[in-house]
Specification:
The complex is a heterotrimer of chains A (291), B (380) and C (323).
Chain A (H helix, E strand, L loop, with lengths): L4 H29 L6 H17 L4 H24 L7 H23 L15 E3 L2 E3 L1 H23 L1 H11 L1 H6 L4 H27 L6 H15 L4 H22 L4 H15 L14
Antiparallel strand pairs in A: 1-2
Chain B lengths: L1 H19 L5 E7 L6 H20 L8 E7 L4 H14 L5 E2 L4 H13 L4 E3 L14 E3 L4 H15 L3 E7 L2 H16 L3 E8 L7 H8 L5 E5 L4 H11 L6 E2 L7 H7 L7 E5 L14 H15 L5 H20 L4 H9 L4 E2 L4 E2 L14 E7 L2 E6 L1
Parallel strand pairs in B: 1-2, 1-3, 3-4, 4-5, 6-7, 6-8, 8-9
Antiparallel strand pairs in B: 10-13, 11-12, 13-14
Chain C lengths: L4 H22 L3 H26 L7 H17 L5 H23 L4 H21 L1 H4 L5 E2 L5 E2 L2 E2 L3 H24 L1 H11 L1 H6 L4 H27 L1 E2 L6 H14 L4 H17 L7 H15 L3 H21 L1
Antiparallel strand pairs in C: 1-4, 2-3
Helix pairs in contact in C: 1-7, 2-7, 2-10, 2-11, 2-12, 3-4, 3-5, 3-10, 4-10, 8-10, 11-12, 12-14
The chains are: A mainly alpha (291), B alpha/beta (380), C mainly alpha (323).
Amino acid sequence: MFAGAPQYIVSGLTQGAAYGLIGLGFTMIFNTTGIINFAQGEFVMLGGMLSVCLSVAGLPLPLAIVAACLATAVIGGLMERLAIRPLAGAPPVNAVIITIGVSILLRGGAMLAFGKDTLALPAFSGVKPILAFGAAIQPQSLWVLAVTLALLAALKLFFTATIQGKAMLACACQKKAASLVGISVARMALLSFAISGLIGATAGAILAPITMTAYDVGMMLGLKGFAACILGGLGNPFGAAAGGLILGILESFGAGYVSSGYKDAFAFIVLLLLLFVKPSGLFGKAGVERV
Amino acid sequence: MPLQTILLALCALFVAAGPASAAEPIRLGAVLSVTGPASFLGEPEKNTILMEVDKINAAGGVLGRPVEVIILDDETDVNKAVLAVDRLIKKENVAAILGPTTSGNSLAVMGKAAAAKVPLISCSAAEKITKPVNPYIFKVAPSDRLAVARILAHAKTKGYKKLAILTVSDGFGQAGREVLKELVPAEGFELTADEVFGPKDTDMTAQLTKIQGTSPDAVICWGTNPGPAVVAKNRVQLGLTTPLYMSHGVASKKFIELAGDAADGLLLPAGKITAAAKLPGTDAQKAQLVAYATAYDERYKAPVSTFGGHGYDSLHLAVRAIADAKSDKPEAIRDALEKIKGFAGIGGIFTFTPEDHAGLGPDAFIMLGIEKGDWVIVGP
Amino acid sequence: MKRPVIGQSVVQAGLFLLLLLAVPAALPNEYYLSICILGSLNAVIAVGLNLLMGYAGQVSLGHAAFYGLGAYATAIATTRFGLPIPVGMAAGVTLAAAVAWIVAAPTLRLKGNYLAMATLGFGIIISIVFNEAVDLTGGPSGYVGIPRLALFGYTFESDRSYYTLMAVVLALVVLVALHLMKSRTGRALRALHVSEKAASSLGIDIAAHKRFVFVLSAALAGLAGVLYAHYLSFIAPASFGFSFSVQLVVMVVLGGMASVWGSVAGAFFLTALPEALREFEDIDILVYGAILVLTIMFLPDGLAGGLKRLGRKLRRVGVDHAG
């Protein structure tokens, strides 16, 4: 009956960790600016594509990945500065449409710069699977899980122990109050886009050896990331990570036990049912409505 | 006075245009998926057509006139393909249409071309395009049935009894899946599992684990990059040794690059062009194939694929028909196309008849294996 | 309060129809007519979606699903079951509306981004069904052989006749939308957009109003789907996926939220833009993205708002000159 379950769990956790990281990127931007960033998936794509291209160009793999992540962070910052900030005062839906426009630009730019082919990145430490608990675990899966945990820990530290992090939290709680106590909301927005670019690109880079990458992978990954943070409760970074893991497991079990064709539908049906029962996600606070 | 001036100017134009019209180009149109999910097909098709048009014109064109191909990108989108075909027929007044690249887009635009009585030579494979025969519609890509037959013949020689299939859930995979589900039992095999994966899926270990549970003798995976490369990698990661057949959808060096070491030992049916250099010297088509492969490699610094060959075949068939018909009238081209016999293209030898607008026989495919990152011919 | 409001919408829609009917005479060839047909199909959906988004303030990232339900329902009804085309069309619109009615109850309780996610998820589930229910829908390779539209013994064979039909349909849809927004229901919808609590304390049945406008906009999408299927005579799931849902939202916002005319403008603009950009060849996608970003940046209230301001400025210039 439960044949293959350990394998499904391993696959699900790997995919899920990546979804969680992407969801984390959404959360960072949403918390400081209230915007759902449709270009989040493109950050993931850029992380993967830039890593591949830099390593092909001769950079050692670790250096290529770090450079790719930093470059994407800069692109995130530029996006905020050039496309989002000039909008100040416009309704949030306009900002969302802008992010859609930016995602088209990034995707098109990547297509022209890197070509339309799918590219592969070598695994960080070989492809010899580790056999444990009746499942074959790829070393890269461990990398994905470890990097996700490390990033979560770093974020936790950032929010609790640094002044920038606390300022960002303040923006998330109450923008006006934050600016009254002297926090530059604009700078926090810039920072959040940069960090979110960094997180997205990291997800793209660590995932690329498993899934490969191409200029058009961003949309689907972005979608899954958005689903992850809604599942966990929008605004809660750890909810997003947990949501990602749950989504990954759902998909993998859906493919294994329900039907591989309907696995995405299965994951989304569970998500919808959950929303009907808990309208603000698993770990989200029920919103207070202003009258 | 102004009216007279205009009339005079118009007359002058016509006089000037008169003698020049002898060298006026013959206009062909092409609708190709140069971008979007099917760009891996459309881009080599476009490159090949551009290259071959230059070659044809350098050799004096056809009927003493140069050939001009207006290539429109449909972005692998049905609506854009329809608009592109409309534009070619109604605005550009082309004599014939090459493409579209994908089966879905071909099925969507067939009616438009036929209604306008403009011949269309599709670069896609679906049997529905030429079955039933539409007088104006032809295709050059070999039917999936031929590829499946090659795989099953190979499986029979190996003595396999139980087969599992893993197909991608897009037009290509679905067409393959339908033929596989029909032919696998019909040829006396047991179909143990029928799994699918999404075109953008990035992990197929769940499907492979499930398939392994049914202990097949071999697995047939039907898809186009990157899915099958992921399947190949996942198979190695899971430590599976069950033989794995791929489809002709990944018959390009790109697949070996993507799958890396995981590609070793895989088998697939492919057009002869894929391993042109490895063909025995006795093969009648070898010289032509090698010449095309070398020219393509020189101009685009990229390895050839069967897909570019579809562009080659559709263009050269149209040009040959124009030469045979001694006319660039769409209807004359159609009539001439239907009479073409024994035309040596990249995809095989084409012979069209009023009942057969696909034109290829089963010898369009050979069986290839992958060893140390290169092709080896393992059977006809 | 002006009294003859309804008369005013009729006049506006009538003038619009005359304008639409005059368009073919100005076109150099029939290729542009195909763009206009696709543009009016998109406009029908966009106007409906704007009723939901712009007026009632409810997001939907799944409207392509209703478009697809309409298209597949009439395709299957007319070919597989051999039903007459009008019956197939009615089935398409009804199915889209019925599914919307069922989905509305649990979904519209959600707010903001959660609502966006729920509608998005719904859209994806439906598009997966289009892909996977191969026996019914023909699967990813599409559904072939849908008959061209024929009503009362007349077949809309030429693109010219199909365009005339689309012009009439679009003008009617615009009329309904204009009329609705000036009615009591329209005012209630706008009230609940501003504040659901305030609206409900005024005695407006929030849930019923939201459900009504959701079903109406889904029915319009279904109508467009039906007309699309009988126009193209071929449909494939790729046309009804997430990216089309997003494109519809972009049409509404780019055109101008809460503006019927804006949605029409947005739909035609975004349908024609990629065709116009063909001259740019490879970089067309970059130009497309840039135009999208710049339009929103410089016209925060969309094409409709931009045109309105332009009109006001021209009028002022005229007054200055006169004075």
